[in-house]
């Protein structure tokens, strides 16, 4: 069975071969690709594109990697890729094309150029829906007040970014969904939205696998944690909800003076140099203002870039993991926390309720209700038995949900089903 994957990130193996940094996104695909490539009856090719690059065609560890040269960034439709895709398909003659994520347009160029192939697309998020929640509950007044020179000249304000999501949803994402006969999803949320846009699409359920490091890592230990520490896996834009955590921590800091928020990723509030000040985003300025307002300078730390191993270590150090997003499908960060056994709290949004049984493997709260978030944090800080229960429940549920052998077999079954149905 010849399978062609179309992906957004350049895979780590190809990135290393090209001398580029390894991407921090797309981890759910890497383990599955590795597992599929080891099946004797599977030939796996992984392709993507970038503008103004030297085309690449390499075979690494049994996987064929292809990088196409485009003329536009992947958020814009690039008709020049249609010719390149036709050439590639003529050589590969794949039995099935699996497009991972539909927020970028290079896969859409393939679907338009070669409409008669067997396609299936995987839903990660849905930018058309996410755009509705992009502001993260921040008022228009606060957004305007915090627009920076960088935002103004680069057109990267929160308002601009929200609009970009809307446009991508209309011009790219919805077109994928209307062309697709087969869709892979994993939550009631993504199924409902797919069926609303294209009622005729076949919906195939399949959970995702996680990065290798989270299967081989030791588990969270109650006595090894840093008391009253909170870990966030990312916080660079409003959807991810860092501002809500700051509001909640302000309500708790008198009861827990040593409360600490550890945030993976660059410090979006940094203004140490003239360059930092010029590059400060509006959201970064807003967060900086909240830290000053609540005097939380000693209560938050940005950890910088973390690879999978370093991420696992930070999860294990924490007392709580929080996924405070204004919208999510099924965040792999929550799956990673659960499979390690880190007591987890998440906002009741999107597909997150499919991952948490409240009180058993995590706690939920309404995104808007910072008081509820504060109380859920307090519940875990003050109740050691609850922390251990959530840890054990998280390990049990996530180990089943992210079972790599089960997910690989389910993927193969879906592939065979799609091929047997043909382009219908």
From TrEMBL:
Keyword Transcription regulation belongs to the record: no
Domain called Glycosyl transferase family: residue spans: 219-396
All copies of domain Glycosyltransferase subfamily 4-like N-terminal, residue ranges: 38-125
Keywords of the record: Transferase
InterPro entries, per the entry: Glyco_trans_1 (IPR001296), Glyco_trans_4-like_N (IPR028098)
Domain of life: Bacteria
Keyword Transferase included in the entry's annotation: yes
Listed Pfam families: Glyco_trans_4_2, Glycos_transf_1
Name of protein: Glycosyltransferase family 4 protein
């Amino acid at each position: 069975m010849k399978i062609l994957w179309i992906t957004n990130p350049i895979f780590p193996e190809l990135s290393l071969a090209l001398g580029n940094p390894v991407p921090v996104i797309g981890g759910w695909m890497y383990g599955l690709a590795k597992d599929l490539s080891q099946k004797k009856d599977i030939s796996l090719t992984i392709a993507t594109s970038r503008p103004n690059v030297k085309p690449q065609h390499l075979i690494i560890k049994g996987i064929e990697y292809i990088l196409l040269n485009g003329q536009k960034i992947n958020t814009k439709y690039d008709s020049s890729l249609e010719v390149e895709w036709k050439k590639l398909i003529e050589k590969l003659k794949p039995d099935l094309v699996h497009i991972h994520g539909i927020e970028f347009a290079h896969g859409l160029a393939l679907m338009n150029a070669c409409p008669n192939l067997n396609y299936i697309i995987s839903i990660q998020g849905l930018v058309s829906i996410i755009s509705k929640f992009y502001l993260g509950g921040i008022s228009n007044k606060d957004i305007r007040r915090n627009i920076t020179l960088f935002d103004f000249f680069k057109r990267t304000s929160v308002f601009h970014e929200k609009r970009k999501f809307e446009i991508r949803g209309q011009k790219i994402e919805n077109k994928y969904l209307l062309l697709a006969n087969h869709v892979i999803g994993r939550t009631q949320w993504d199924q409902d939205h797919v069926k609303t846009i294209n009622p005729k699409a076949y919906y195939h359920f399949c959970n995702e696998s996680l990065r290798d490091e989270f299967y081989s890592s030791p588990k969270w230990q109650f006595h090894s944690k840093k008391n009253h520490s909170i870990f966030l896996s990312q916080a660079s834009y409003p959807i991810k909800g860092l501002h809500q955590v700051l509001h909640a921590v302000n309500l708790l800091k008198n009861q827990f003076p040593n409360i600490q928020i550890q945030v993976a990723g660059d410090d979006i509030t940094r203004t140490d140099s003239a360059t930092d000040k010029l590059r400060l985003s509006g959201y970064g300025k807003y967060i900086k203002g909240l830290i000053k307002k609540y005097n939380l300078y000693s209560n938050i730390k940005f950890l910088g870039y973390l690879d999978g191993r370093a991420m696992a270590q930070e999860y294990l150090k924490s007392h709580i993991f929080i996924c405070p997003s204004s919208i999510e499908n099924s965040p792999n960060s929550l799956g990673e926390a659960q499979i390690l056994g880190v007591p987890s709290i998440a906002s009741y949004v999107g597909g997150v309720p499919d991952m948490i049984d409240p009180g058993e493997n995590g706690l939920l709260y309404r995104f808007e209700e910072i008081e509820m978030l504060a109380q859920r944090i307090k519940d875990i800080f003050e109740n050691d038995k609850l922390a251990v229960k959530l840890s054990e429940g998280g390990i049990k549920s996530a180990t089943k949900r992210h079972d790599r052998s089960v997910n690989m077999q389910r993927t193969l079954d879906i592939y065979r089903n799609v091929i047997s149905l043909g382009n219908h």
